[in-house]
Amino acid sequence: MSERVRAAGPQHEHRAPSACPVCGDRLAVTRLGCGTCGTELAGLFAPCDYCALDDRESEMLRVFLASRGNLREVEKHLGVSYPTARARFNDLLRKLGLAGAEEAPSAPNRDQILSEVASGALSPDEAATLLAQL
After folding, report:
1. What are the domain boundaries of the chain?
2. What distance in Å separates the CA atoms of residue 55 and residue 58, rounded to the nearest whole number?
3. Of 50, 60, 75, 117, which one's alpha carbon is 20 to 30 angstroms from that of 66?
C-alpha cells in the first residue's frame, strides 16, 4: 500500500467478512476500489481462499511455510504440543478444502489440552472450545 493511500485512508485495516451474516453462505467480491483516485470496478471477482482465514489460521500457515513444512518447528514456534500443531494444521487443510477424505480429524485429548493450558500455550477459552468438541 502506498504512503499516499495510508495517509488518506483509515489508519487500520479490517478483515473482510467471508460469510453472509444472514444465511451463512460465502460472500462474493463484487466491487473493488482505489483509495487514491476513487476508481471503482464492479463485477464478480474470484474469491481468495486465504483471505477467509482468521488471524490464528493465517499465523499457522505463515509459520508452516516459514518452517518449510516442518511440524516440529511449528510446534516450537507456536509453543504447543506436536498433536496440537498437527490438529491445527489439519483444521487449516480442511478449511482450505485441501484435506483428503481419508483424513480423520486429529483433535488433542483432554490431558493434552489441560497440559497446554497449564503451560500457557492455550488460553482457557480455547481449551473450553476444544474440550466441548471431545
Report:
1. 3-48, 53-133
2. 5
3. 117
